[in-house]
Amino acid sequence: MHASEREKLILGLLDGRGFVSFQELDGQIGASPATIRRDLERMAGRGDLRRVRGGAEKVRGGSETAPQMPLHLSGAPFHENIARNPAQKAIIGRVAASLCRDGEGVMIDGGSTTLQMCPHLSDRNLQVLTNSLHIVSALLSQPKTQILVPAGSVFREQNIILSAAGEESMPRFHAPRLFMGAASLGPRGLMQADVVLVAAERRLIEKADEIIVLVDSSKFTGPSGHVVCELGEIDTVITDEGVRDGDRRMLEAAGVNLIVAK
Fold this sequence. Notes:
Layout: H1 3-14, E1 19-21, H2 22-28, H3 33-46, E2 49-52, E3 55-58, H4 78-81, H5 86-97, E4 105-108, E5 127-130, H6 133-139, E6 146-148, E7 153-155, E8 160-162, E9 175-180, E10 184-186, E11 189-192, H7 195-205, E12 208-214, E13 226-229, E14 236-239, H8 245-253, E15 257-260
Parallel strand pairs: 4-5, 4-9, 5-6, 9-12, 12-14, 14-15
Antiparallel strand pairs: 1-3, 2-3, 7-8, 10-11, 11-13
């Protein structure tokens, strides 16, 4: 494939989603990883895209009209997710909360598992940036917890706040740790059901030093959904005792620290 054809394919993948992972490019472009990296560097130098950790992001001009936000997100609504594997999620949330250090800033992405961290954060004097109205509600009763939220539209079924791809909506905030969930986790990486979630979560990832993923063992599946990040970008996965040996080996091979909550 000629360089111009590869560039056209890369821009096509970026169009409408805002982000494409290096692993996805590697799977769709008939070229070596070194060639793809050179393509991305060349295109970034021209201003065609922006290089970010794990892939590339679409560049939008200041005068460009933001894309129309959908009315609903793909995937199960929150009230259905919260009822799935509640005991495992509660244990995972408790263990994840224990990784927070007193007085620090953290980011907690919306989800039925990340929500379970909240009861264990009340005495830690944290600054919490979250896009979840459920998490905001759970933290409001904690006087020692400072809460920050992004700008954007409220998606009622998931009770989260999201903005259009390419729109800067996050406070000027950087955190040692980002806690996030997933629709599924597999060899291709962390996946979500909706492309709008991918763009929003990439903006969170860029603001964190460490990525910690909270998933119950039912979330380990084959490729399904839109890739948010590759396994190699994840620092730690917290799951329950139902995790299979094959999934343990998959994470170990990718250099991901695995914590089994008990």
